[in-house]
């Protein structure tokens, strides 16, 4: 799975900065050329800041996902209320719901 967090965060920061700078400039009554130049400058600066913040977030997410995978390997899934021995027996036979509609319940 490819993480694109840095690009998404940097683009969001840049667009938000452009919107805020342009709306503020128009509401204050600055000339259009000054508003656009300042909005583009704010967009560039915030794109760099967002890229740094996004890269840090992407690294943290990747590290936490890997730690989660190591803590919870998929072949050792134990349902709530079961011991590990019961889980291996349950894998041999399909689990049937004891109540109607129980198959729709997700336990996290």
Number of E-type strands:
0
Low-confidence stretches: none
H-E order = HHH
What is the beta-strand fraction?
A: under 5%
Radius of gyration computed on alpha carbons: 25 Å
Sheet with the most strands, sense and barrel status = none
Number of helices: 3
Q: Count the domains.
A: 1
What helical percentage do the residues reach? 55-70%
Oligomer: single chain
Span of the ends, CA to CA: 22 Å
**What structural class do the secondary elements suggest?**
mainly alpha
**Structural shape:** elongated
Mean pLDDT figure: 81
Write up this protein.
With 108 residues, the chain is mostly helical. It has one domain. It has helices at 5-28, 32-71, 84-92. Helix 1 packs antiparallel against helix 2 (32-71). The longest helix is centred in the middle third of the chain and has 40 residues, at 32-71. The two termini are 22 Å apart. The mean pLDDT is 81.
Topology summary:
Layout: H1 5-28, H2 32-71, H3 84-92
Helix pairs in contact: 1-2
Concise structural overview:
The protein has 108 residues and is mostly helical. The chain has one domain (5-92).
List keywords for this structure.
108 residues; mainly alpha; 68% helix
